[in-house]
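Technical annex B. To support the medicinal chemistry partners, we prepared a structural model of the target in complex with adenosine-5'-diphosphate, based solely on the information shown next.
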Amino acid sequence: MNFIRAYKLLSLANKMIKGDYRKVSGLMGEMHGFPQKLGQHLTLYRGDPFDRYFKDLCTASRTEDVNITEVLGELQIEAGKFEISAQASIGQVYRVEAGAGVLAVKVKYPGVEERIRSDFRTLKTVLWPVRVLPLKNSSLFPLLEQMKLLVLAECDYRREAEVQKAFQELFGDDPDITVPEIITYNERAIASKWVDGTGLVGCTGWLDGWFIETYLKFILTSLRELGMIHADPHPGNFILTGANGRKLAVLDYGSAVMFNTREAGAAVRLLAGEYGDEAELLDDLRILGIDEESLHIYRPIIGDLVSILLEPFYSPGPYDFSDWRMQYRINTLMSSRAWEKPLLMSPKLLLLVRTIQGLYFYARENSVIFDWHKAVSNYLG
Ligand SMILES: Nc1ncnc2c1ncn2[C@@H]1O[C@H](COP(=O)(O)OP(=O)(O)O)[C@@H](O)[C@H]1O
Ligand SMILES: [Mg+2]
């Protein structure tokens, strides 16, 4: 175990409990990897202190020593000028002026996979007493294991570049959406075309219905055509580009979900919500990876949980988030009785829910009233 890193992680947890978010965000940015990812995710929760302390983590943190000349050599890129442009959780991004034009070259931090493994070992070690206490936490360790695998999957740059290529081909002619073209890649770096424009970090109050429609079209079209969705909705992954900023560039395919044909069908039906009876909904949740035991335990409330979460999709007509109280309603349902075990979702379902939360976040932050139901039939119909 990396003891210095383990110590930092524990002090991060301690500061989190004390509510010292300034220090928490500082440590997340210094550590990169899983802690920074968590910070980026927190930006999708509304309001202070999340806006204030975590939004910078979407594109900026501590600079690391990366041998960029060697990386460019491996990729056979003849670079003129280059400079560091962003530090993300897994890698550092350079703006590189090359023969092929201006490129974004994302280079993995050295040893980042080992840091991720070390962090999860630390978490499991400090949480081990939970295993022997008679608590209802049997899902904690499987959940940690799932999270570790998801974060490690984001370190597979070859997979990421291949996925990005598939998206780029799909949206190549789209008037509203662009995916940066992949120029070349290897296991530690990805070079794509540079996108100029405005990022979405701090995007409160100036996005409109066009953005929500376009982002939703992006998600639904790729689900229908590729059986994949981009599942990392934080503001660092979007740039408004093109004339008048009316083209949405979507970056970062590290946590894209690949559904098989059956799963994609279930995800489409779930968003469209046209179920004849509850058994059909349960079948789709089963296909999407909720285990039989959870379905059995949560059966009395599962239909309601899904309708609350997907209410904007299921309500006909423009949906106004100002009278939406999802968290409150879900909490009320969950506290209606004591459950034998937490509701364990599969990684794919977790990422689908994260994407939906991301879409809602932008609509709510910008008070966009939008017809989600109609968009679903337009783009999935
Ligand atoms: N093609 C690009 N053009 C312009 N900026 C980019 C491009 N690719 C990445 N960036 C910048 O680098 C940041 C991190 O890149 P990203 O692919 O999201 O990395 P990570 O997978 O580590 O989150 C982005 O938030 C963006 O600011
Ligand atoms: Mg990113």
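Notes passed to the chemistry partners:
The CA atoms of residues 168 and 179 lie 5 Å apart.
The mean pLDDT is 93.
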